[in-house]
Amino acid sequence: MKAWDEFIKGFWSENPIFRLVLGLCPTLAVTTSAENGLAMGFASTFVLVCSNTVISSMRRFVPKKVRIPAYIVAIATFVTIVDLVMNGYFHALHKSLGLFIPLIVVNCIILGRAEAFASKNPVWVAIIDGFGMGFGFTVSLIVIGAIREVIGNGTIFNVSIFGDGYLPLLLMILPPGAFIVLGVLLGLMNKVEIAMAERSGRQPIIRREHDCASCTIHTKWFDFSEKEKPTVE
Amino acid sequence: MKEIIRLCFVLTLITAVSAGVLAYVNQQTAEPIARALLEEKMSAVRSVLPPYDNEPDKDMITIMIEGGDSIEVYRGRKDGTVTGAAFAIVASDGYSGDIEFMIGVDGEGVMQGLMVLKHLETPGLGAKIESEDFRGQYSGKSLENTELWEVTRDGGTFIPITGATISSRAITKTSAKGLKLFREHKAEIFEEGEVQE
Description:
The structure holds 2 protein chains of 2 kinds. Chain A is mainly α. Chain A has one domain (2-208). Chain A has helices at 2-8, 24-30, 34-57, 67-89, 91-97, 108-116, 123-153, 175-200, 216-222, and strands at residues 155-156, 159-160. Chain A starts with a helix and ends in an 11-residue tail after the last helix. By secondary structure, chain B is of the alpha+beta class. Chain B has one domain (48-191). Chain B has a 5-stranded antiparallel β-sheet. The interface between A and B is medium-sized, with 27 and 26 residues.
């Protein structure tokens, strides 16, 4: 059951975009269509899984002082591989994602998972975490991309749904549309989370005390023993 | 001191492995990438040339133009005679960045087609220069039959994309430049008209 929990947390309770609010640069920039969101999601997932695997397996050999450069080198290597392979075999997709493929290197989700999770968990857990986070990221990108594409262009995955009579709301494809969709979705997700938590009688994730000490990244990094762990009730 | 050496050693090891892996991947993908880039260009060439029966990718000549630049001209032939040419031109007055596009011209200097190769225009607005509706209106136009190579707003005949007059204007004006270039170098392009490779 633990494996499933590690996987599904990326979708809801620790969704990289809507909960951790990480990796917003590619999120806002490439989600002009559902297809771009899907491609970006897959590319990031691949890098995330590979970097989690490598970083987790070398966690005992890398001295703490040079861990960040070591992570970045590993991540950059995988991003470059994705960039080259995509350019050669999926040229059209590579063209539409353009600059954002190399920029996966600086995507906070990937370094964040390396630092907060992969570097202190066994390899198989880190791999599941990579898949889960990648899955959550991909689904989120597709949803944002689909909404923007439908309203801003009248199509979804390049298939016209409203017919020729539809006058697209261009704003949604332009940069402001990304902020609007992200904000509305984030708000809706919080609303649903509160309703769900009330029904099951638990503390909603977003109502929990939020400071650096209770942040999951922080607690996991500093490895509090059970009794000094900050309470999240 | 000992620690520094250890840190250096670990980092060097990691970067060396990384370099090795990347060198291998780079070597493996070099050919597919080159092929994809060429195919992209050639599909544009094929779509803008007048009817031809040769292989335009093997029939390329380089033409020197003013300013020391050169352009690559791909020739289409029918029964061995050059019927038209395709070449890429760059509009540097787009809305954001250069717009590179391929135009095809027949022996009379009439434009046969236009294909956008590279641009950074706004998605949903300027990016529509790639649409058939916009590109199509250039086919059949020449310097002779069209007096003013301008968009309608500037008194010309080309209908710009709504909300993207700058991108449309850049394409229109640069196309005219391309046609002039063709006219000046027509003799060169058609020179070896009888020679079949």
